[in-house]
Write a structure and sequence with these properties.
Elements: E1 10-11, E2 15-18, E3 20-24, H1 29-41, E4 47-51, H2 57-69, E5 74-77, H3 83-92, E6 97-98, E7 107-111, E8 129-134, E9 145-148, H4 155-165, H5 172-185, H6 194-207, H7 211-219, H8 226-237, E10 240-244, E11 247-254, H9 258-268, E12 272-279, E13 282-289, H10 291-294, H11 300-311, E14 314-317, E15 321-326, H12 330-349, E16 352-354, E17 368-371, E18 376-380, E19 383-384
Parallel strand pairs: 4-5, 4-7, 5-6, 7-8, 8-9, 11-12
Antiparallel strand pairs: 1-2, 2-3, 10-11, 12-13, 13-15, 14-15, 16-17, 17-18, 18-19
C-alpha cells in the first residue's frame, strides 16, 4: 500500500531527487518565484488555473499539481475537457469548471497554451492579471507574463518545479498526474527527451506507484469507448492521401477524437497525418508525424503555426504533434495542409514536385507524382504505379 504522506524531494547540485532520477531546477528561478508569489498574493481575491479547450491530460495534470500545491486555486477549462482529462480528474477526485467567468478572479494562471485562441475568442485585453505556464516554444501571441521552458517534454514537469520550489511535497495524485502528462504528451515516449525519463524515474521511485496504474488512468474506459473506436474507423474510411517518394501524407475528417484518429492513421501506415474536426463554428486540426519525418527537419509546431496564419487562425505545438484552432472550412484547411506538406517533403527529399491531378469527391483517392529524375514515384487512385 502506498503511503499517502507527501514525499519531500532532496535538493542536489542539479535539481530535485527522490531516489532515482532527477527533476532539474527551473530554467529561470527568479521568474518562477514571481509566479509563486503572485499565486500567494492573490489568494484572497481568487486564482483561476485555466486550461486550453478540450483540455488534454498534460493540461489537466498540470492544473491538478498546482491545485495540490496551492489548494485555494480554482480549476477551469475553455469550452471542454477531453475524455482522458476527465478520467484523470475522476481518479484524483477533482472537478474542472468549463468556461468559468474570468472576471471573478484577480489572477489567472493559463497552462499548456501557446496562443490566446486556445483559451478565449482571441481578445483577452479585459482579463485580470495573468501568467502563462507552458513548454511550447513560441509565445508571441501573448502580451502578458509568460514562463516557458521548451526543454521540458510536458507542462506537468514545470508544474512540479513550481510545487517543489514553493515547498510542496509529492503525493500520489501529483505523481499520477505528472506521469500521465509526460506519457501522453510524449506519445507514450515516442518523442521523449532525456529529461522526461529522468523525471519519470524520480516520480516512480519517489511515489511508489506503478506505471501500469498510470496507463490504466490514461486508457481506462477510453480504450473501450465506442465513440472513439467509431471516430478512428471513420477516419480510415474517409482518408485522402498522397505519396511523396516513399512517404505518405494523409488527411481525414471526424467530428471528435481527432488526436486518436491521427494516431490510428499513423499505425495504419501514414507518415504524416492531419485530422480535422469541423463542427458548427469551430475548427480543430490535429497533426502527427513519425520520427523519421522529424529527422528530415520537419517541425509540425512551426508548420501548423504557418497554416494558422494563412487561414486566420492560430496553430502550433511540438515537432511531432501539433494542432490548429479557430474557424473556417475543414476541407479547405486540410487541402492546404496537404499541399504545403507534400511540397515541403518533396524539397526535403530532393524530389521534383509535379502538380497533382486530384479527383474531387472521391474519398481515399488522390493522384500525384514526385520524382528525382532516375526514379519516378507516382500514385494513381492510391495505388503506386
Amino acid at each position: 500500500m502506498i503511503d499517502p504522506t507527501p514525499k519531500r524531494p532532496t535538493s542536489t547540485k542539479n535539481g530535485w531527487s527522490m531516489g532515482y532520477g532527477l527533476l532539474p531546477y527551473p530554467r529561470d528561478e527568479i521568474r518562477m518565484w514571481r509566479v509563486i508569489q503572485d499565486i500567494i498574493d492573490h489568494r484572497e481575491e481568487g486564482v483561476l488555473v485555466l486550461a486550453h479547450h478540450n483540455a488534454d491530460i498534460d493540461a489537466v495534470g498540470t492544473a491538478i499539481i498546482l491545485k495540490k500545491a496551492f489548494p485555494w486555486v480554482v480549476l477551469g477549462a475553455y469550452r471542454s475537457v477531453s475524455h482522458a482529462g476527465r478520467s484523470l480528474l475522476a481518479h484524483v477526485g477533482m472537478e474542472m469548471e468549463v468556461d468559468p467567468d474570468v472576471s471573478g478572479f484577480s489572477l489567472i494562471v493559463i497552462v499548456d497554451s501557446s496562443s490566446t485562441l486556445q483559451v478565449s475568442e482571441g481578445d483577452i485585453s479585459g482579463w485580470p492579471r495573468y501568467w502563462v505556464i507552458d513548454h511550447h516554444a513560441d509565445h508571441s501571441h501573448w502580451s502578458g507574463n509568460v514562463y516557458q521552458d521548451p526543454m521540458m517534454g510536458a507542462c506537468v514537469e514545470i508544474a512540479l518545479q513550481i510545487s517543489f520550489l514553493s515547498g510542496a511535497g509529492l503525493d500520489e495524485d501529483m505523481a499520477v498526474s505528472a506521469l500521465a502528462g509526460i506519457v501522453a504528451d510524449t506519445g507514450k515516449f515516442r518523442f521523449t527527451k532525456p529529461v522526461d525519463m529522468d523525471v519519470c524515474s524520480m516520480v516512480l521511485s519517489g511515489s511508489g506507484i506503478k506505471m501500469e496504474n498510470v496507463l490504466g488512468v490514461i486508457e481506462g474506459e477510453e480504450y473501450f469507448d465506442v465513440s472513439k473506436k467509431i471516430a478512428q474507423l471513420k477516419a480510415v474510411r474517409r482518408v485522402r492521401f498522397e505519396r511523396v517518394g516513399d512517404q505518405i501524407v494523409a488527411t481525414s475528417m471526424v467530428s471528435s477524437y481527432e488526436a486518436a484518429a491521427a494516431r490510428a492513421l499513423l499505425v495504419a501506415g501514414a507518415d504524416v497525418v492531419f485530422i480535422a474536426a469541423d463542427r458548427k463554428d469551430e475548427l480543430r486540426i490535429s497533426s502527427r508525424a513519425k520520427p523519421h519525418i522529424l529527422a528530415l527537419g520537419v517541425h509540425l509546431g512551426n508548420f501548423m503555426e504557418e497554416i494558422g496564419r494563412e487561414t486566420g487562425n492560430q496553430g502550433g505545438g511540438h515537432d511531432g504533434a501539433a494542432g490548429l484552432n479557430g474557424t473556417g472550412s475543414g476541407e479547405k484547411a486540410l487541402q492546404l495542409c496537404m499541399d504545403r506538406m507534400t511540397s515541403l517533403l518533396a524539397g526535403k527529399l530532393g524530389l521534383e514536385l509535379r502538380k497533382p491531378d486530384r479527383r474531387s469527391g472521391q474519398r481515399g483517392r488522390t493522384a500525384g507524382r514526385y520524382h528525382n529524375g532516375s526514379s519516378d514515384h507516382a500514385v494513381r487512385d492510391g495505388v503506386p504505379s
